[in-house]
Amino acid sequence: MLPPVKKYTSSGGGKASARARVLAQWRGVDYVPLEKARATPARPVGDFLPALMKEFRLEARQAEAEIVKVWNALIDPAVTAHAQPHNLNKGTLFVNVDSSVWLNEIVRYRRKEILERLQHSFGKSVVQKISFRIG
């Protein structure tokens, strides 16, 4: 024997489609108001993309990637083999050097030249100073 069919009562004031009425009668519960409450309308990408880019720091990451490209193109290959830019923070470029000998060489003799080349490429406001460290 089949279980007794529960009486379907529409909780909404509007007309329900035949499909919605049949589903509600079959389920015994009207889920249409819940489904409407859960459905979020689609938003244009332009509404949330700037906040997302700011959250993921995409502009800063793009600048860092650009610095690595320019570093490898402008700086002497002997230096780039032993020193690579690591991070750019508030106008300071942090560069990791693989040994104390190269750190001493770069800081004493090549720091000013490297800074001038980077400032010429990016501007003085982007790269204000360079900090070399062993890493």
CATH class group of the largest domain: Alpha Beta
CA-CA gap between termini: 78 Å
CATH topology term of the largest domain: GMP Synthetase, Chain A, domain 3
Portion in helices = 40-55%
Order of helices and strands: HHHHHEEHE
Uncertain segments are: none
Strand order of the largest sheet: 1-2-3
What is the H level of CATH, i.e. the homologous superfamily of the largest domain? DnaA, N-terminal domain
Share in β-strands = 5-15%
Mean residue pLDDT: 83
CATH architectural designation of the largest domain: 2-Layer Sandwich
The total of beta strands comes to 3
Task: Please render the helix and strand layout as text.
Blueprint: H1 18-27, H2 32-38, H3 45-56, H4 58-74, H5 77-80, E1 83-89, E2 92-97, H6 100-122, E3 129-134
Parallel strand pairs: 2-3
Antiparallel strand pairs: 1-2
Helix pairs in contact: 4-6
Describe the structure.
With 135 residues, this protein is α+β, with helices and mostly antiparallel strands. The termini are far apart. The mean pLDDT is 83. Strands 1-2-3 form a three-stranded mixed β-sheet. It is 54% helix and 14% strand. A hairpin with a 2-residue loop joins strand 1 (83-89) and strand 2. The chain has helices at 18-27, 32-38, 45-56, 58-74, 77-80, 100-122; strands at residues 83-89, 92-97, 129-134.
Features:
135 residues; 6 helices; 2 domains; alpha+beta; rod-shaped
